[in-house]
Design brief:
Layout: H1 14-39, E1 44-48, E2 54-58, H2 64-75, H3 81-108, H4 118-177
Antiparallel strand pairs: 1-2
């Protein structure tokens, strides 16, 4: 059973279109290589896919530039002249814009004003006033933004400071009724009272006076 004839038209499915392009591109490159070897021909192929991907095949005995030079010589045309003229025209426009900008900067600095007419001076004054207003607006906007940012940071710091104070006061209250750690002249003791699990330990220093003038010495006072 023979192969059906494929209708030559654009493949609508993008995946199938890309697959067909890859297969046929490889086939064309293979034919070009065979033509180069069998016939000693100079072959150059330049291809772009619909996605803009570039593919090129050129005979090993020649470069792309030499191929273009030979093509121009054979047809008697210059492929680069038009492009060069466009580049020169674009360069001239850029130079003109650059000269105008430099002259405008010098005039705003108070230079190069001898040949300026009254109308041009008024126009320059208006442009400088507009530029000054823009700079001021931008400056005030930056200052306002920085000020608001600083205020937010200050508020956050104040809130954090208040939270730390509350946390510190809470810890101080817990220390008044909680456990006393064994540090310096204090020793920890364990006392169980009324079946509770709260532990309290206190020790009076040696020679600590009492209400009747006496002292406890090195003895411990335990709270039931």
């Amino acid at each position: 059973m023979g192969r059906g004839k494929i209708e030559i038209k654009r493949i609508e499915n993008s995946t199938n279109r890309q697959v067909t392009y890859s297969k046929r591109r490889n086939g064309i490159f293979k034919k070009a290589q065979e033509l180069t070897v069998l016939c000693d021909a100079k072959v150059s192929l330049i291809m772009f896919s619909n996605t803009g991907k570039f593919h090129e095949f050129i005979s090993p005995t020649i470069t792309t530039k030499k191929m273009f030079d030979q093509y121009q010589k054979a047809l008697g045309i210059d492929l680069w002249s038009t492009h060069y003229e466009r580049m020169q025209e674009h360069l001239g426009k850029l130079r003109e814009i650059n000269n105008k900008l430099r002259r405008d900067i010098r005039q705003r600095m108070g230079e190069d004003l001898n040949d300026v007419s009254i109308l041009e001076l008024r126009d320059l004054e208006e442009r400088m006033a507009s530029a000054l207003e823009f700079v001021r607006d931008r400056k005030y906007h930056v200052i306002k933004t920085q000020t608001e940012t600083c205020r937010k940071k200050v508020r956050n710091l104040e809130e954090r400071h208040g939270d730390l104070l509350l946390e510190f006061e809470a810890k101080c209250e817990d220390l008044q009724y909680g456990l006393v750690e064994n540090e310096g002249d204090y020793e920890s003791a364990i006392t169980i009272a009324n079946g509770a699990s709260n532990l309290y330990a206190f020790r009076l220093q040696h020679g600590h006076p009492t209400a009747n003038g006496g002292g406890f010495g090195s003895h411990e006072l335990r709270l039931a």
